[in-house]
Amino acid sequence: MDQCKDAPSELSDHGPIRSPLGHRLMFLTLTCLAFCLFAPTTVLPILREYGQLLAEEAQLKRQTTELRREIERQDALLVAFASDRTINERLAVLDLNYRNPNEQVLPILPPGYSAPTPKAADKPLYQSDLLIPQQWPKGVRRIERWANDRGLIDLFLNPNLRPVLLLMSGGLVIAAFVLFAPRRRREKSEHLAATRQVA
Questions:
Q1: Domain that holds residue 46
Q2: How many Å apart are CA 35 and CA 43, to the nearest integer?
Q3: CA of 191: how far to CAs of 5, 8, 127, 183, in Å?
Q4: What 3-state DSSP class applies to 79?
Q5: HEC string of 6-68?
Q6: Which residues contact 199 (CB under 8 A, 6 or more apart)?
Q7: Contact between residue 199 and residue 12 where contact means Cβ atoms under 8 Å apart
Q8: Residue 106 counted as domain residue
Q9: 7-13: which pairs have CB atoms within 8 A and are 24 or more residues apart?
Q10: Mean pLDDT across the chain
Q11: d(Cα 23, Cα 181) in Å, to the nearest integer?
Q12: Is residue 143 assigned to a domain?
């Protein structure tokens, strides 16, 4: 009977088993490294595809707007051809070189004049590789530019390196759990089993 009374006190003196501080730090370090490899490898291709879809949508909107304007202009010309006599006379002058008797055509532009070349659209100072929309916060664009200057975006977007990076992140997670997994506390059932064995 005395041995049974002494057994629980001995177990309670030891307290719950915990991992050493170094093991816990290594576990956190390895899992954070695995996350730092896994997250950009999976998210950046999706983000770039999203940016491409947004750019394509904006281009389609511009084309649709231009086509609508062209349709409206063609409709206005059709109405003018059907009803406006002045428009028909001008078209005859332009297309058929028709001139009224005693009419002289004087050039308005000086000789040697050439039409100015259309100005190219101003390119942004920095074009995002991920095609990040302009309305996103400046901090996101700043981080993307920092990563691009150091070659990190090309690294994570490289389709040949993606399987290697995913395997590395999986290996880090496995190493963290196999080598430095946190130990569980002793449960009450273990205490009860130990007291019964002593008894």
A1: 22-100+128-179
A2: 12
A3: 13, 7, 64, 16
A4: helix
A5: HHHHHHHHHCCCCCCHHHHHHHHHHHHHHHHHHHHHHHHHHHHHHHHHHHHHHHHHHHHHHHH
A6: 3, 4, 7
A7: no
A8: no
A9: 7/194, 7/195, 7/198, 7/199, 8/191, 8/195, 11/186, 11/191, 11/194, 11/195, 12/191
A10: 78
A11: 8
A12: yes
Q: How many domains does the chain have?
A: 1
Express each pLDDT in 138-176 by its tens digit: 888 888 889 888 888 888 988 899 999 999 999 999 999
Taking only the tens place, the pLDDT of each residue in 179-193 is 888 776 555 455 555
Encode pLDDT of 55-76 as tens digits. Answer: 899 899 999 999 999 999 988 8
Residue 57 to residue 51: CA distance in whole angstroms: 10
**Domain-located, residue 191:** no
Helix (H, G, I), strand (E, B) or coil at 169: helix
Tokens of 125: 């100072």
Residue 58 inside a domain? The answer is: yes
pLDDT for 99-138, tens place per residue? Answer: 777 777 676 777 777 767 766 555 554 556 787 877 888 8
Which residues, in sequence order, are CB contacts of 184 under 8 Å at separation 6+? 17
* CA 81 to the chain's CA centroid: 51
* 4-13, 81-90, 114-123, 181-190: segment of lowest average pLDDT: 4-13
Residue 194 has pLDDT above 80, yes or no: no
Chain length of the chain = 199
Q: For the whole prediction, is pTM greater than 0.70?
A: no
